[in-house]
Amino acid sequence: MEKPHGVLVMAYGTPKNMEEVPAYYTHIRGGRPPSRELLEELEGRYRAIGGHSPLHEITRAQAKGIEDALREDGEGRYKVYLGMKHTAPFIEDAVDEMREDGIERAAALVLAPHYSKMSVGSYFERVRSHNADKKPEFHFIDHWHAEEDFLDFAAQRVEKALQEFPKEVRDDVRVVFSAHSLPARILREGDPYADQLHETGDLIARRLGLRHWLFGWQSAGRTDDEWLGPDIREVIKELRRDGHGHVLLCPVGFVADHLEVLYDVDIEAQALAKDLDLVLHRTESPNADPAFTHALAGVVRRRLQQP
Which CATH class is domain 148-282? Predict the structure, then answer.
């Protein structure tokens, strides 16, 4: 029997409960424990969303959805493995498992549509450094921000969210596409990340015939670096100053409900909108919607069909 193709699905990872938050935060910081103040702030954010992020369960469901969609090509042709950047099962564990299973050829997919050397590239580097003998042989999927099925799916989510506004104001709603901010130095290095976000937003807007759309960044890290901007909070303030009262936020760079959506958007940005007397809605996250996982399965399938 022909050996199956492997598919390494990679994601950021999240603590499964409050007890795991300190170790998680330490891992994110490269092994440096956070200060008590920083830890308490992060713990407070998790408590604000119910003491638990659903990201772990969603990521597993996404990986299963991709595998189920790939199995439409035939049982046993693909086997999906899940590796996390900051929590177990780690990327290295997944690569070891693939090697033990005798996987010879595999696709590597990060659950983030836009490429940056600092984000998606860092996942790939983890794979490469742990797989020096190139067994399995990995075929990396750098980005999928302009894949037709993904754009169709995202456009449907935007269209659905626009229905939450009164009909008489829909043509004037400002749609803000956002992604996780990164240090601004990536622009000087020719990184495609920002351009890819703009391309995604522009392609979605054209599909829907939107009249007004713009871009923002969110969830910037707390370092001395300058980060990509404007932050979505500044975008919201600016729109209100210009007299706009209805905003749809589309965090298109995120594919699941987690802290950066459930807190940064649903709590922090919503509180700001309320203070400004502005109506703010956001698009529903892709999560494990079958249409979304089918789109990703198509990306994987096409990559493995290449020589």
Answer: alpha beta
Q: Give pLDDT tens digits for 59-118.
A: 999 999 999 999 987 767 999 999 999 999 999 999 999 999 999 999 999 999 999 999
What's the fold here for domain 5-144+288-305?
Rossmann fold (3.40.50)
In the chain, the N- to C-terminal Cα span, in Å, equals 21
Please determine whether the domains at 5-144+288-305 and 148-282 fall in the same fold group of CATH: yes
Q: In the numeric block, which tokens belong to residue 77? A: 């042709």
Quote the CA–CA distance of 27 and 47 in Å, as a whole number: 20
Contact 123, 12 (CB under 8 A): no
Confidence category of residue 20, pLDDT binned at 50, 70, 90: very high
**Position 162, amino acid:** L
Q: Is the dihedral of CA 144, 148, 151, 157 positive or negative?
A: negative
- Residue type, position 145, single letter: H
